[in-house]
Structure formats: structure tokens, C-alpha cells
Queue: 4 jobs
Job 1
Amino acid sequence: MKRRISADKGFTLLELLIVLAMLTVLLSLATLQFNRYSRKSSIEAQVKTLHADLLAARSQALFEKRARAVSLTPTGFAAYSSGSATGNPLQRKTLRHRLSLKSDPFVVVFNAAGVSDSADSDAVCTEPAGNEAAADTLVITPTRIETGKRNASAACSSENITIR
């Protein structure tokens, strides 16, 4: 009995092109999802870092029994050794995501008791509004600093923040 050798072994060029097209579509979708996730986690990390830095300045004011100032700009953070935001800062950071502030610079002074000079509550929001981060805002009251989520497309004010 003779065996026939078939010429139908392997893949055709058309089949390979279809598989490559499908892989290209899947990779592009995965890249988009990764970029969204990366931006979300970057915003959350910035908010957590700012929160920790503000709490550290507050703790230093309380333990050293002297006022400490923190200056926030849309692109940066600076902590000072006195209650005045002038001179050389002890710590300076450049922010990856812009902040929305009620004034530029926005200065928070913690007195010797660790209480901020905020009259009511002030919001520090990370731009853009409507991002997917779980926490994109800091709410600063005289005695607390909390993280929160700004309502989509709302102005950066404490009334539009959901505390997390």
C-alpha cells in the first residue's frame, strides 16, 4: 500500500496574516489598558505621597513645638522649617500630575499644636478631573488631612469630594 504525501502541511500565508492581525488587535487593546492602569496608579501614588508628606510636616510641627509651612504649586511641593514659606525648603518635590489649588502657591501652615491654619476645609485635587483613580484629592481641615475622590467633572472644592 502506497502512502500519499499530502501537500497540505503547514499554514498558508493568508492564515498567518489573519493570526498576525488578531494578535495586533489584542496587543493594542492590552497596551491601552496598561496605560490606563499605569496612569491610575500614578495618580493614586502621588496623592498618597502628598498625604504622607503633609502628615510628616504636621507631626514635625507638633513634636518640635514650632510652626511648619508647606507650599503646594500646581507642579510641586515644598516643606519649610518655619511657619513661613520663604527661604530654602527642607524638602522639595516635583509632581508628575498637575494639582488644582484654590491659590498658587497654596500654603498650609501647621502651628505648634499640629493644627493647620485652614479656616474650614480646603481641597487639593489632582488633574484631570474624572480620572479613574480611587483617590485623587486631599481634603485639609484644621485637624485632619484626608484622601478622597472628586466627583466627575466637578470643581475642586470640598463639597465635591467623597472622602475615602
Job 2
Amino acid sequence: MSDIRDQAGLAADPRFGRLLAHVTSKRGTRRWASRGDIDPGDIAALLPNIWIIEIEQPLDPTARRLRVRLAGTQVERIYGRSLNGLYLEEMDWGIYSSRIFHALGRMADDGVGHFLDAAAMIQPRLSRRVRRLGLPLSDDQLRVSHLVLLAYYEFNASAPEHFHELWLDEAVMRP
């Protein structure tokens, strides 16, 4: 059986493998690493492309909100503005918005990692491709409190639209 990291393209782009290795090593025997476990100095080269998403989970699970706590400089350059404090539900992510929100919600609810490779036309003859690894974090080991996302964006004139995703289960995310 092939390694899931290869199926997700993580071996081809070691930046994703580096984040996965960092988070799984910080997690140890726990189900999830915590936000406090993530040492920015250990992943300094990745920081421009990092998102930290806080899961606001009131008593009513249908009222869950996803708020940007940190967006790296490259992420903010792509979006053309500061994203800190924004709710992801209020952002338009194009034709794949509902699928992206569903994936983020599943990461929050089920505590599983996710790899996404999607491209969509954002202007006539201009396509934006994103490759993103998302991993759950938990401050109390009872529920997911944050998501850490590592996203890389490409723009080109001829990329075909696509949406590919791969879910990473707990066994895969073990060191």
C-alpha cells in the first residue's frame, strides 16, 4: 500500500510534509497537538503561507463559526487585505465555496486532516490553484479548537478547473 502522503502529493512538496511531521511530533501520544505546541521558530519558512483558524463552538453545534486568528503574509497578499478576525463563512471562495466550507467543518467536527488541490477561474482567462494541507489542533483534547492550514497559491491562464481532496485519518498522521 502506498503512503498517503505520496497520494496527497506531500512527498513532491516537502513543505507539506514538514508541517505534517512537525504537528505529529508535537502531538506525541495525544489525539491532537495543541495550538501552543506549534513552535513558529520550527516552521519559520512556512509561516508566510500559514493560516490559524479558531473554532468558535457555542453550546449549539449548528452555530459553529470559523475565525481567522492568523494569516501569513503571503496569504494576505493573495487576498489583498488583512484577514485576521474575519469569519471564513463571510468570505467568497468562488465556485467551490460550499465544498471548502464543508471540508473545514468536517476537520473541525471530526478532527481529521485534509489535503486539497483545487483550481478555478477567478477572471476570464485567469485561474487560481490552491494546494492546502489542514490539520486539527485541540487545547483540551475534547474537541478541535483550531485548524492549522498551509496553503500555496498559483495563478495561470490555462489551468483546468478541478477539485481534488484527500482525508488523512489518525493512523496516517502518526509519526
Job 3
Amino acid sequence: MPLYVFSCFKVPETICNKLDSISRAFWWGHEPGVRKLHLLHWDEICKPKSMGGLGLKKFSLINQAMVAKQFWRISQNPNSLMARAFKAEYFPRSSIYECTPKPHHSWIWRCIVNQKNPKLKESRWWIGKGSDIPLTYQAWYPCPPQSLDNSNLPTKTVVDLINHSNGTWKSDLVRSIYPYSINEDIMSNPISRTGSVSDKLFWKYSNSGVFKVKNAYKLL
């Protein structure tokens, strides 16, 4: 399997379909000039073992998951050479979450940022000081602009929403600003008990917060 290529950019569907075809031919024992009967649909074979399949992977989906990992490598390792190079070129004055790739940007960069499945980029916060996250930050939760015109929000950052004396959310304030479906999600974010660490953004669909291709594939 061409792992390096699959982790760098979106491979054309025609190539992925051809690779799937080769896998199917091998699985069903095709010989040159002789096609054998496929006793089960390929979708069924590719289901996880827990769902009655064999856990084989489709090339197009594994490609999506592997490219998405690059997004999180850049997000969670901002001091790496790759992250600094992409930031200098494509989003020098914003975060990767706020970056909208343009047509003239490189194919590799557009593949990394433009994900078909939004779950591959969905995140959750590990709240430290709270002062690193503006309430208008795109990767934070949306709210009507007029809701931020509140005397209880002097810094307009997440620090205003936290009781630092006991490390809990100011539930009444959060509920007064955000709709129910959002405020419950906000208050499910863990807050550091020390209050001195930086705020960090993690992948939502992993217990550790680290993006895992295996977990991402299950979402596709």
C-alpha cells in the first residue's frame, strides 16, 4: 500500500477504485482472463469484524483519514518545521481553523484543509488559563455577537466563563450566552485544576485527544 502518497494528498478516485478492484480480484481468486463469482458484496466484507465483516479497508476512505492526520499534526505541533512552513505561506495571521484555501494554493495544502467529512476536523478543548481563547475564535463555539455585549465578559475570552477559585464553569453565565445544545457541550470540556497551563485543542473522537487514523476510518 502506498502509505506515503496516501498520507500527503487526496488520491484520485479512479486510482482508489482500481486499487480496490485489485484487492477484490485477489480476494476472490481471479486468474488472468477468468472472473470468479463474488459471493458477497465488497461493502459487507469491508465492515468491521464486530459488524460481521472482515475489516478490510477501502482505499478512498483510508486516504481521507490519513490526509486528515496532517491537519492535526500541524494544529498540535505548531513549532514543527512543517507547521511553520505552511503557516508562513498560507495562514500567517490566523489559525489553521480559520484558514480558507484559495484556488492558487497548492494541491497538497487544499487537500489537508478541505475535508469532506467535518468530523475529521471536529475538536474539543482542554481548558487551561482560558485567556488564550477569544470568544469570537472560529474554533470556539458560535454565539450571537450581541450576546458578547455583557459586563460579565471584560476580556471577551474564555477566562471570563470560569470560576478559577474552584476550577468550574460559571454555568449561569454560559447558559445566558449560548443556546442549550451548545452550553452543555461547553461545560463538558475539562478545565485544568492548576489554571497555569495553556489552552489546547484536541480531536473530539479520541479519548486521548490524539488523532488516530483507525478511529477516523470508522467515522467515514
Job 4
Amino acid sequence: MRGQTPLHEAAVRGHTAAVERLLVACPAAASARRQDNASALYLAAENGHEEVVSLLLDAAPGEVLGVADGIGNGPTPAHIAADNNHAGILLRILKATPQASQAPDLKAS
């Protein structure tokens, strides 16, 4: 995917140690988006990687979560966690950012 960073790749695959190292080296990487607007948090939530989600939320809770974090203003990490039945991840996201429970999926049909 165009614009995918090493952090995106580590988040997709659930490589916790790599995510940890990448965030230490470059904390700003947590807010990087791919061309489709997906963040590392979105990808980790989609793939059920709870430890990675926790690391990303701890690194930059205000930057990696929000209405604009959905792909193209579509589903947010909270939406994708709920859709994929990742209850632990959904709870972690809502605990870190309660307003996520009210973020609309602007592309839902």
C-alpha cells in the first residue's frame, strides 16, 4: 500500500517489539497515515493485535484516535474493532478515548 511505513507493517502483523522500538525511535510515526488514510492503530485494531493497540494509544492517544482516523472518514478503529468482534481492543480504545463511541462512520451505507 502506498504510504505504508514500517510502523504500519509492524502493526498489521502484530509485531509488538518492533512497534515498541519504532515508537521510541520516532513517536510521531504513530500519527502517520497511508494513502488510504489508515493509521497504524486502525490496522492493529482491524487485525486483533491488542498489545499493539495499547502501545499506540499510550504513545499518542490524542493523535492516533479520532473521527478522522477512519479510512477516508469511514470506520474508525473503534468501528473496525467492533465489526471484527475484538472486544478487548474496543474496550481499550473506549477507555482511552470515550468519545470514540460516538464517532460516526461517514461512509456506512
